Amino acid sequence: MILTVDIYSRNTWWKIAFLVFCVLVGAASLYITDKLVSKLEEREKQQIELYAESFKYTMTSDPNQDVNFFFDKFKQANENNTIPVILKNGTGYLESNNIEIPKELSSKEKQEFLKEKLDEIMRDDNVPIELDMDFHKEYIYYGNSQLLNILRYYPLFQLLIVLIFGFAAYLFFDASRRSEQNRVWVGLAKETAHQLGTPLSSLTAWVEYFKTDPSFDPEIVKEIEKDVQRLDVITTRFSNIGSVPVLKDENVVETIETFMSYLQKRISTKVSFTLDNQLQSHTTIKLNRYLFEWVIENICKNAVDAMEGVGALTVVLKELKNNQIAIDITDTGKGIAKKNLSKVFNPGFSTKKRGWGLGLTLAKRIIENYHAGKLFVKHSEVNKGTTFRILLGSGETE
Protein backbone atom coordinates (compact mmCIF):
# COMPACT_ATOMS: atom_id res chain seq x y z
CA MET A 1 0.00 0.00 0.00
CA ILE A 2 1.34 3.43 -0.96
CA LEU A 3 0.86 6.21 1.58
CA THR A 4 0.09 9.59 0.01
CA VAL A 5 0.06 12.98 1.72
CA ASP A 6 -2.01 15.89 0.52
CA ILE A 7 0.30 18.82 1.30
CA TYR A 8 -2.27 21.34 0.04
CA SER A 9 -5.10 20.44 2.41
CA ARG A 10 -5.90 22.86 5.22
CA ASN A 11 -5.77 20.35 8.08
CA THR A 12 -3.61 17.23 7.76
CA TRP A 13 -1.68 15.05 10.19
CA TRP A 14 1.67 15.85 8.56
CA LYS A 15 1.52 19.49 9.66
CA ILE A 16 1.10 18.46 13.29
CA ALA A 17 3.88 15.88 12.90
CA PHE A 18 6.19 18.48 11.36
CA LEU A 19 5.49 20.93 14.18
CA VAL A 20 6.10 18.24 16.81
CA PHE A 21 9.34 17.27 15.05
CA CYS A 22 10.60 20.87 15.14
CA VAL A 23 9.73 21.19 18.82
CA LEU A 24 11.46 17.87 19.64
CA VAL A 25 14.59 18.88 17.73
CA GLY A 26 14.70 22.18 19.60
CA ALA A 27 14.05 20.55 22.98
CA ALA A 28 16.67 17.83 22.39
CA SER A 29 19.19 20.45 21.33
CA LEU A 30 18.53 22.51 24.46
CA TYR A 31 18.76 19.44 26.71
CA ILE A 32 22.00 18.06 25.22
CA THR A 33 23.70 21.45 25.10
CA ASP A 34 22.68 22.21 28.67
CA LYS A 35 24.31 18.95 29.77
CA LEU A 36 27.49 19.84 27.87
CA VAL A 37 27.52 23.33 29.37
CA SER A 38 27.09 21.93 32.88
CA LYS A 39 29.98 19.48 32.38
CA LEU A 40 32.24 22.14 30.88
CA GLU A 41 31.32 24.56 33.67
CA GLU A 42 32.20 21.93 36.30
CA ARG A 43 35.48 21.16 34.52
CA GLU A 44 36.48 24.82 34.46
CA LYS A 45 35.60 25.16 38.12
CA GLN A 46 37.81 22.16 38.95
CA GLN A 47 40.64 23.71 36.96
CA ILE A 48 40.41 26.94 38.93
CA GLU A 49 40.18 25.04 42.24
CA LEU A 50 43.27 23.03 41.31
CA TYR A 51 45.07 26.20 40.40
CA ALA A 52 43.99 27.81 43.68
CA GLU A 53 45.29 24.91 45.76
CA SER A 54 48.59 24.93 43.86
CA PHE A 55 48.88 28.67 44.21
CA LYS A 56 48.13 28.57 47.92
CA TYR A 57 50.62 25.77 48.53
CA THR A 58 53.36 27.54 46.63
CA MET A 59 52.71 30.96 48.16
CA THR A 60 52.63 29.73 51.74
CA SER A 61 55.75 27.62 51.17
CA ASP A 62 57.85 30.37 49.67
CA PRO A 63 56.32 33.88 49.85
CA ASN A 64 59.20 35.33 47.83
CA GLN A 65 58.07 33.61 44.64
CA ASP A 66 56.87 35.83 41.79
CA VAL A 67 53.07 35.68 41.40
CA ASN A 68 53.28 36.04 37.62
CA PHE A 69 55.54 33.00 37.51
CA PHE A 70 52.77 30.79 38.85
CA PHE A 71 50.24 32.33 36.48
CA ASP A 72 52.57 31.42 33.61
CA LYS A 73 52.99 27.88 34.90
CA PHE A 74 49.22 27.53 35.21
CA LYS A 75 48.77 28.80 31.65
CA GLN A 76 51.39 26.35 30.34
CA ALA A 77 49.69 23.47 32.10
CA ASN A 78 46.41 24.40 30.39
CA GLU A 79 47.38 25.42 26.86
CA ASN A 80 43.78 25.60 25.62
CA ASN A 81 42.50 27.37 28.68
CA THR A 82 40.73 30.69 28.10
CA ILE A 83 39.21 31.16 31.54
CA PRO A 84 39.62 34.79 32.67
CA VAL A 85 41.10 34.89 36.22
CA ILE A 86 41.72 37.76 38.64
CA LEU A 87 43.58 37.34 41.94
CA LYS A 88 42.80 39.82 44.69
CA ASN A 89 45.31 39.80 47.56
CA GLY A 90 44.83 41.01 51.12
CA THR A 91 45.67 44.61 50.22
CA GLY A 92 43.20 44.69 47.37
CA TYR A 93 45.89 44.52 44.69
CA LEU A 94 44.74 42.72 41.52
CA GLU A 95 46.61 40.32 39.28
CA SER A 96 45.14 38.67 36.18
CA ASN A 97 45.45 35.82 33.74
CA ASN A 98 43.83 35.35 30.30
CA ILE A 99 42.78 39.00 30.31
CA GLU A 100 44.28 41.22 27.66
CA ILE A 101 45.48 44.50 29.21
CA PRO A 102 46.50 47.42 26.98
CA LYS A 103 50.26 47.86 27.23
CA GLU A 104 50.15 51.65 27.30
CA LEU A 105 48.32 51.75 30.67
CA SER A 106 50.15 52.83 33.81
CA SER A 107 50.11 50.68 36.97
CA LYS A 108 47.24 52.70 38.43
CA GLU A 109 45.30 52.57 35.18
CA LYS A 110 45.84 48.80 35.01
CA GLN A 111 44.27 48.44 38.46
CA GLU A 112 41.25 50.50 37.36
CA PHE A 113 41.02 48.41 34.22
CA LEU A 114 41.09 45.16 36.22
CA LYS A 115 38.43 46.48 38.62
CA GLU A 116 36.10 46.97 35.65
CA LYS A 117 36.92 43.49 34.40
CA LEU A 118 36.27 42.12 37.88
CA ASP A 119 32.74 43.53 37.77
CA GLU A 120 32.21 41.79 34.42
CA ILE A 121 33.54 38.48 35.73
CA MET A 122 31.28 38.62 38.79
CA ARG A 123 28.26 38.81 36.48
CA ASP A 124 28.93 35.19 35.49
CA ASP A 125 27.76 34.19 38.99
CA ASN A 126 30.80 32.02 39.71
CA VAL A 127 31.53 31.87 43.44
CA PRO A 128 35.07 33.23 44.07
CA ILE A 129 37.57 30.83 45.63
CA GLU A 130 38.85 31.94 49.02
CA LEU A 131 42.49 31.33 49.85
CA ASP A 132 43.21 31.35 53.58
CA MET A 133 46.83 32.44 53.85
CA ASP A 134 48.68 32.55 57.19
CA PHE A 135 47.87 36.16 58.03
CA HIS A 136 45.34 37.25 55.40
CA LYS A 137 42.88 36.01 52.85
CA GLU A 138 43.11 36.22 49.10
CA TYR A 139 40.39 35.62 46.51
CA ILE A 140 40.43 34.16 43.03
CA TYR A 141 37.65 35.39 40.78
CA TYR A 142 37.05 33.62 37.49
CA GLY A 143 34.62 33.99 34.62
CA ASN A 144 33.38 31.71 31.88
CA SER A 145 35.59 30.83 28.97
CA GLN A 146 34.63 31.92 25.47
CA LEU A 147 33.79 28.31 24.57
CA LEU A 148 31.43 28.03 27.52
CA ASN A 149 29.65 31.26 26.60
CA ILE A 150 29.25 30.09 23.01
CA LEU A 151 27.80 26.76 24.11
CA ARG A 152 25.45 28.50 26.53
CA TYR A 153 23.82 30.65 23.84
CA TYR A 154 24.21 28.27 20.93
CA PRO A 155 21.04 26.20 21.64
CA LEU A 156 18.92 29.36 21.67
CA PHE A 157 20.35 30.30 18.29
CA GLN A 158 19.80 26.78 17.04
CA LEU A 159 16.22 26.74 18.31
CA LEU A 160 15.60 30.07 16.57
CA ILE A 161 16.92 28.60 13.30
CA VAL A 162 14.67 25.54 13.68
CA LEU A 163 11.62 27.74 14.36
CA ILE A 164 12.43 30.02 11.40
CA PHE A 165 12.85 26.96 9.18
CA GLY A 166 9.59 25.48 10.43
CA PHE A 167 7.72 28.74 9.91
CA ALA A 168 9.21 29.22 6.44
CA ALA A 169 8.29 25.65 5.49
CA TYR A 170 4.74 26.18 6.72
CA LEU A 171 4.42 29.40 4.69
CA PHE A 172 5.81 27.63 1.64
CA PHE A 173 3.35 24.74 1.84
CA ASP A 174 0.48 27.09 2.64
CA ALA A 175 1.35 29.29 -0.34
CA SER A 176 1.69 26.21 -2.53
CA ARG A 177 -1.72 24.98 -1.39
CA ARG A 178 -3.37 28.32 -2.11
CA SER A 179 -1.57 28.63 -5.45
CA GLU A 180 -2.72 25.16 -6.47
CA GLN A 181 -6.28 25.91 -5.37
CA ASN A 182 -6.24 29.19 -7.31
CA ARG A 183 -5.07 27.40 -10.45
CA VAL A 184 -7.84 24.84 -10.05
CA TRP A 185 -10.49 27.55 -9.59
CA VAL A 186 -9.19 29.59 -12.52
CA GLY A 187 -9.15 26.52 -14.73
CA LEU A 188 -12.64 25.54 -13.60
CA ALA A 189 -13.97 29.07 -14.22
CA LYS A 190 -12.51 29.27 -17.72
CA GLU A 191 -13.77 25.80 -18.58
CA THR A 192 -17.24 26.79 -17.32
CA ALA A 193 -17.19 29.88 -19.54
CA HIS A 194 -16.12 27.73 -22.49
CA GLN A 195 -18.89 25.19 -21.87
CA LEU A 196 -21.51 27.94 -21.60
CA GLY A 197 -20.52 29.38 -24.96
CA THR A 198 -22.27 26.78 -27.15
CA PRO A 199 -25.73 26.75 -25.49
CA LEU A 200 -25.55 30.55 -25.14
CA SER A 201 -25.10 30.95 -28.89
CA SER A 202 -28.06 28.66 -29.45
CA LEU A 203 -30.25 30.62 -27.01
CA THR A 204 -29.31 33.87 -28.72
CA ALA A 205 -30.44 32.41 -32.04
CA TRP A 206 -33.74 31.29 -30.52
CA VAL A 207 -34.37 34.77 -29.13
CA GLU A 208 -33.87 36.24 -32.58
CA TYR A 209 -36.32 33.70 -33.95
CA PHE A 210 -38.92 34.58 -31.30
CA LYS A 211 -38.63 38.24 -32.24
CA THR A 212 -39.73 37.46 -35.77
CA ASP A 213 -42.64 35.26 -34.70
CA PRO A 214 -45.75 37.42 -34.02
CA SER A 215 -47.30 34.67 -31.91
CA PHE A 216 -44.85 35.38 -29.07
CA ASP A 217 -45.49 38.24 -26.66
CA PRO A 218 -42.79 40.89 -27.30
CA GLU A 219 -42.50 41.66 -23.57
CA ILE A 220 -41.80 38.02 -22.75
CA VAL A 221 -39.24 37.85 -25.55
CA LYS A 222 -37.62 41.00 -24.19
CA GLU A 223 -37.26 39.45 -20.71
CA ILE A 224 -35.89 36.24 -22.19
CA GLU A 225 -33.38 38.32 -24.10
CA LYS A 226 -32.32 40.01 -20.85
CA ASP A 227 -31.72 36.60 -19.28
CA VAL A 228 -29.66 35.50 -22.25
CA GLN A 229 -27.67 38.71 -22.03
CA ARG A 230 -27.25 38.01 -18.35
CA LEU A 231 -25.82 34.60 -19.15
CA ASP A 232 -23.44 36.27 -21.56
CA VAL A 233 -22.30 38.64 -18.80
CA ILE A 234 -21.77 35.70 -16.43
CA THR A 235 -19.76 33.89 -19.09
CA THR A 236 -17.59 36.97 -19.55
CA ARG A 237 -17.04 37.19 -15.79
CA PHE A 238 -15.84 33.59 -15.58
CA SER A 239 -13.58 34.00 -18.60
CA ASN A 240 -11.98 37.08 -16.95
CA ILE A 241 -11.06 35.21 -13.76
CA GLY A 242 -7.30 34.85 -13.48
CA SER A 243 -6.67 37.66 -15.97
CA VAL A 244 -5.81 41.28 -15.30
CA PRO A 245 -9.14 43.14 -15.69
CA VAL A 246 -9.41 46.13 -18.02
CA LEU A 247 -10.81 49.21 -16.25
CA LYS A 248 -12.76 51.81 -18.19
CA ASP A 249 -14.60 54.99 -17.30
CA GLU A 250 -18.11 53.80 -16.47
CA ASN A 251 -21.20 55.59 -15.21
CA VAL A 252 -21.51 53.95 -11.79
CA VAL A 253 -25.13 55.04 -11.26
CA GLU A 254 -26.23 53.63 -14.60
CA THR A 255 -24.40 50.36 -13.88
CA ILE A 256 -26.17 49.90 -10.55
CA GLU A 257 -29.57 50.97 -11.92
CA THR A 258 -29.33 48.46 -14.76
CA PHE A 259 -28.62 45.58 -12.43
CA MET A 260 -31.26 46.56 -9.85
CA SER A 261 -33.87 46.85 -12.61
CA TYR A 262 -32.97 43.36 -13.75
CA LEU A 263 -32.95 41.88 -10.23
CA GLN A 264 -36.18 43.53 -9.08
CA LYS A 265 -38.27 41.58 -11.60
CA ARG A 266 -36.77 38.27 -10.50
CA ILE A 267 -37.23 38.33 -6.74
CA SER A 268 -40.12 38.64 -4.32
CA THR A 269 -42.41 41.64 -4.87
CA LYS A 270 -42.34 42.12 -1.08
CA VAL A 271 -38.79 43.49 -1.30
CA SER A 272 -38.70 47.20 -2.13
CA PHE A 273 -35.71 48.78 -3.91
CA THR A 274 -34.54 52.37 -3.35
CA LEU A 275 -31.64 54.06 -5.11
CA ASP A 276 -30.55 57.33 -3.50
CA ASN A 277 -28.08 59.01 -5.86
CA GLN A 278 -26.29 61.98 -4.28
CA LEU A 279 -23.56 62.15 -6.90
CA GLN A 280 -23.26 64.73 -9.62
CA SER A 281 -24.85 63.75 -12.89
CA HIS A 282 -22.82 61.50 -15.19
CA THR A 283 -20.17 60.72 -12.58
CA THR A 284 -17.79 58.08 -13.92
CA ILE A 285 -15.31 55.78 -12.23
CA LYS A 286 -12.62 53.46 -13.56
CA LEU A 287 -14.40 50.10 -13.45
CA ASN A 288 -14.53 46.70 -15.00
CA ARG A 289 -18.28 46.71 -15.49
CA TYR A 290 -18.69 42.93 -15.58
CA LEU A 291 -16.79 42.38 -12.33
CA PHE A 292 -18.27 45.42 -10.55
CA GLU A 293 -21.82 44.24 -11.35
CA TRP A 294 -20.82 40.90 -9.84
CA VAL A 295 -19.97 42.66 -6.58
CA ILE A 296 -23.32 44.51 -6.47
CA GLU A 297 -25.12 41.28 -7.36
CA ASN A 298 -23.46 39.27 -4.59
CA ILE A 299 -24.16 41.89 -1.92
CA CYS A 300 -27.76 42.46 -3.04
CA LYS A 301 -28.56 38.76 -3.27
CA ASN A 302 -27.11 38.20 0.19
CA ALA A 303 -29.29 41.07 1.43
CA VAL A 304 -32.42 39.54 -0.16
CA ASP A 305 -31.63 36.18 1.44
CA ALA A 306 -31.08 37.87 4.82
CA MET A 307 -34.54 39.48 4.55
CA GLU A 308 -36.10 36.13 3.56
CA GLY A 309 -38.00 37.78 0.74
CA VAL A 310 -39.59 40.56 2.81
CA GLY A 311 -38.04 43.98 3.51
CA ALA A 312 -36.35 46.98 1.98
CA LEU A 313 -33.05 47.29 0.12
CA THR A 314 -31.53 50.76 -0.14
CA VAL A 315 -28.49 51.81 -2.16
CA VAL A 316 -26.98 55.22 -1.42
CA LEU A 317 -24.27 56.76 -3.60
CA LYS A 318 -22.41 59.81 -2.31
CA GLU A 319 -19.08 61.56 -2.59
CA LEU A 320 -16.92 61.86 0.52
CA LYS A 321 -14.62 64.73 1.51
CA ASN A 322 -11.51 62.91 0.28
CA ASN A 323 -13.00 62.65 -3.23
CA GLN A 324 -13.83 59.00 -2.71
CA ILE A 325 -17.20 57.63 -3.77
CA ALA A 326 -19.10 55.64 -1.15
CA ILE A 327 -21.77 53.09 -2.07
CA ASP A 328 -23.82 52.00 0.93
CA ILE A 329 -26.04 48.95 0.48
CA THR A 330 -28.49 48.57 3.39
CA ASP A 331 -31.01 45.82 4.06
CA THR A 332 -33.59 45.23 6.78
CA GLY A 333 -32.63 41.59 7.26
CA LYS A 334 -31.55 39.51 10.23
CA GLY A 335 -28.19 41.27 10.62
CA ILE A 336 -24.78 39.82 11.46
CA ALA A 337 -23.75 38.74 14.95
CA LYS A 338 -20.67 40.52 16.34
CA LYS A 339 -18.74 37.25 16.54
CA ASN A 340 -19.22 36.78 12.79
CA LEU A 341 -18.34 40.31 11.62
CA SER A 342 -14.68 39.38 11.14
CA LYS A 343 -15.60 36.18 9.27
CA VAL A 344 -18.12 37.33 6.67
CA PHE A 345 -15.43 37.78 4.00
CA ASN A 346 -13.64 34.50 4.78
CA PRO A 347 -13.85 31.83 2.05
CA GLY A 348 -16.41 29.16 2.91
CA PHE A 349 -18.14 31.16 5.66
CA SER A 350 -21.91 31.13 5.28
CA THR A 351 -24.94 31.12 7.55
CA LYS A 352 -27.12 29.73 4.76
CA LYS A 353 -27.82 26.04 4.23
CA ARG A 354 -26.96 26.29 0.54
CA GLY A 355 -24.06 27.95 -1.23
CA TRP A 356 -20.29 27.78 -0.90
CA GLY A 357 -19.74 31.01 1.01
CA LEU A 358 -17.62 32.56 -1.74
CA GLY A 359 -19.79 35.51 -2.82
CA LEU A 360 -18.56 38.13 -0.35
CA THR A 361 -15.00 36.81 -0.54
CA LEU A 362 -15.04 37.27 -4.29
CA ALA A 363 -16.67 40.70 -3.98
CA LYS A 364 -13.97 41.91 -1.57
CA ARG A 365 -11.22 40.65 -3.84
CA ILE A 366 -12.72 42.34 -6.90
CA ILE A 367 -13.06 45.70 -5.11
CA GLU A 368 -9.75 45.71 -3.24
CA ASN A 369 -7.41 43.86 -5.63
CA TYR A 370 -8.80 44.94 -8.98
CA HIS A 371 -10.30 48.38 -8.24
CA ALA A 372 -7.97 49.55 -5.41
CA GLY A 373 -11.01 50.23 -3.22
CA LYS A 374 -12.42 48.91 0.03
CA LEU A 375 -15.38 46.73 0.97
CA PHE A 376 -16.44 46.32 4.60
CA VAL A 377 -19.38 46.05 6.95
CA LYS A 378 -20.18 49.62 7.94
CA HIS A 379 -22.90 48.71 10.44
CA SER A 380 -24.93 45.68 11.44
CA GLU A 381 -27.48 44.98 14.14
CA VAL A 382 -29.10 41.64 14.76
CA ASN A 383 -32.75 41.51 13.58
CA LYS A 384 -32.52 45.06 12.24
CA GLY A 385 -30.25 44.92 9.23
CA THR A 386 -26.81 45.42 7.75
CA THR A 387 -25.00 48.08 5.75
CA PHE A 388 -22.12 47.18 3.46
CA ARG A 389 -19.94 50.03 2.24
CA ILE A 390 -17.90 50.14 -0.97
CA LEU A 391 -15.24 52.85 -1.29
CA LEU A 392 -13.86 53.64 -4.72
CA GLY A 393 -11.35 56.17 -6.02
CA SER A 394 -12.23 59.72 -6.95
CA GLY A 395 -14.81 60.06 -9.64
CA GLU A 396 -14.89 62.32 -12.69
CA THR A 397 -17.78 64.37 -13.96
CA GLU A 398 -18.37 64.57 -17.67
Automatic annotation (TrEMBL):
Species this protein is from: Arcicella aurantiaca
Gene3D superfamilies: Histidine kinase-like ATPase, C-terminal domain
A Pfam match: HATPase_c
Location of the Histidine kinase domain: 191-396
Transmembrane regions: 12-32, 153-173
One example GO MF annotation: ATP binding
EC supergroup of this enzyme: transferase
Catalytic reaction equation(s): ATP + protein L-histidine = ADP + protein N-phospho-L-histidine
Coiled coil region boundaries: none
Protein's UniProt name: histidine kinase
Keywords: ATP-binding, Kinase, Membrane, Nucleotide-binding, Phosphoprotein, Transferase, Transmembrane, Transmembrane helix, Two-component regulatory system
EC number(s) reported in the record: 2.7.13.3
GO term, biological process aspect, one: phosphorelay signal transduction system
Superkingdom of source: Bacteria
